[in-house]
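Bumping with the actual sequence this time:
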Amino acid sequence: QVQLVESGGGLVQAGGSLRLSCAASGRTFNSYALGWFRQAPGKERDVVAAINWSGGVAYYADSVKGRFTISRDTAKNTVYLQMNSLKPEDTAVYYCAADSRTGAQAMFLSRRGEYWGQGTQVTVSS
């Protein structure tokens, strides 16, 4: 059974940085797509970034391009989201997702995932 456990959320001032981690277990993830999604209060969950476990091109929402970086450490079975130059509008619950059925581009375009973590709160104060 796939388990995804996020950590690293918290309260930060605008302009600050956070690094989210997602520890993945229960499968060999070589053919999986991994992604980060977020849901702000009163809004639908939306994709932030996606990457294939095997590497390659990463996909980013326009709102985070140049500020956020998704990466993975295959030795640690962990996916990261480095968030820099944070803005109050980045405030949301951030979720890690994995999908064995599609690649990162399809995950990004469909905004869907197969497995989900429990989420971690990120709050950016102005």
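The tokens above came from a reply further down the thread. The first strand starts at residue 3 and ends at 7.
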